[in-house]
Design a protein that fits this description.
eight-stranded parallel barrel, single chain, 40% helix, TIM Barrel, alpha/beta, globular
């Protein structure tokens, strides 16, 4: 079922994440997607995540759709101007893709081509506005399209940010620009969602909480030191360190967080970090399967 229908029916939405391959061989990525498909409603395909050069999101979304897997096409502003961005939205719609997530994108300095020139002609808010116009049959220049797109448009928000006010203000701007749902950055303290849940309920736009699988304590510390906008509590790192099997502890932690999220928001977005085969176990621990 597409995201827009689940939103209308107020169903609890479960999504997960898939990175395209760094190369033209995509069979492994498709196999990973197929492992998650029975347990999730849709799969986000990342677009140059971490500013690392990979296969694009769109072709992998198309390949998933051909196999009956519901994709969420992620589109970032970093590498394209407004002409290319709008063209990509039309491309996605032409392929039959129904869901899109609009992001600004990570800075190139974080990636494997730090000498690349970033574009950022639009930001995430203006990309949302552009997609809203394309859904209405017009481009950003006010020109009439031959038909219109029919995309369910999502955006992202970070409940871990300090101060919170700019994030809440930007969330509201994104809703006014056309966002139909939100996925959050990974959250480990569900209480941080409260002001964002309140705004999502006031504006009637569902919030889907991000859940990151912690595979070991080294990963957790690396995230705290190197990934902006995520804060892994020391108590969880100790839990990973004391466990006989760190990955099992990570699964337990993710399941526990999802259990709490079910009473707070309208869905969860699982970030398995390349361990797509563990999504089923995480949801089992959460009592969702």
């Amino acid at each position: 079922m597409i995201i827009s229908e689940m939103i209308k029916q107020k169903k609890f939405i479960v999504t997960s994440e898939l990175a395209p391959p760094k190369g033209p061989v995509y069979e492994k990525a498709l196999s990973a997607a197929e492992k998650m498909t029975p347990f999730v409603d849709a799969i986000n395909v990342t677009d140059g995540q971490g500013a690392v050069m990979r296969m694009g999101s769109l072709p992998l979304c198309h390949l998933l759709l051909e196999r009956g897997i519901e994709p969420i096409f992620q589109l970032t502003c970093r590498d394209r101007n407004r002409i290319a961005l709008q063209s990509e939205v039309l491309n996605a719609s032409g392929f039959g893709i129904k869901n899109i997530l609009c992001l600004t994108g990570d800075y190139v300095s974080f990636g494997d081509h730090p000498e690349a020139k970033p574009v950022f002609d639009l930001d995430s808010v203006s990309l949302l506005s552009a997609t809203k116009k394309l859904n209405g049959g017009f481009d950003l220049g006010g020109n009439i399209l031959n038909g219109s797109t029919k995309l369910c448009v999502g955006a992202v928000v970070n409940p871990n940010a300090l101060p919170l006010e700019p994030q809440l203000l930007k969330m509201k701007r994104k809703i006014l620009a056309g966002a139909s749902f939100f996925q959050t950055q990974a959250v480990f303290d569900v209480s941080k969602l409260e002001p964002f849940v309140q705004l999502s309920q006031e504006m009637k736009v569902p919030l889907i909480m991000g859940v990151l699988l912690l595979k070991n304590p080294q990963m957790a510390r690396f995230v705290n030191e190197n990934v902006s906008g995520i804060d892994v509590p020391e108590s969880l790192i100790c839990e990973l360190e004391e466990a006989n099997e760190a990955i099992e502890a990570g699964i337990e932690i993710a399941g526990r967080i999802i259990k709490k999220a079910r009473n707070v928001c309208q869905g969860v977005h699982i970030m398995p970090g390349g361990r797509e085969e563990l999504v089923q176990k995480i949801l089992g621990k959460a009592g969702i399967l």
